[in-house]
Write a structure and sequence with these properties.
The protein has 111 residues and is mainly α. The protein has 4 helices and no strands. The relative contact order is 0.04.
Length: 111
């Protein structure tokens, strides 16, 4: 009886069990990889917010440019100048203000 039951169990596992497990997880994988409508709506909303913020920044830069054409050089903006920010070669410990923050303004020295 055991010799007769063993091949049937093996065939059932090979032809029914394994394909069922494989197709089950393939189906789960395909449904999990897609975006839901809620995800798409969230992405659309985030895109709109980013576009509005970009428009606001462009407007602010135009206003500042109209008031002071050299504002990027005054502000030491490395993005506008195409340069990476770097530390000065000589660090001045007196550049640290009373509030503990490092100032980029030149200090007046009493001679």
């Amino acid at each position: 009886m055991g010799d007769f039951l063993f091949p049937i169990v093996i065939c059932a596992i090979l032809f029914i069990g394994f394909p069922w497990v494989i197709f089950h997880y393939i189906t789960k994988w395909k449904t999990a990889a897609t975006l839901t409508t809620e995800d798409e709506n969230l992405l659309d909303e985030l895109h709109d917010v980013a576009r509005r913020l970009d428009d606001r920044m462009a407007t602010i830069e135009r206003i500042i440019q109209a008031e002071n054409p050299n504002w990027r050089a005054i502000a030491h903006d490395p993005a506008g100048m195409g340069l990476e920010p770097r530390l000065s070669r000589s660090f001045d410990p007196d550049a640290i203000g009373d509030d503990g923050r490092l100032s980029n303004q030149p200090r007046r020295r009493n001679s």
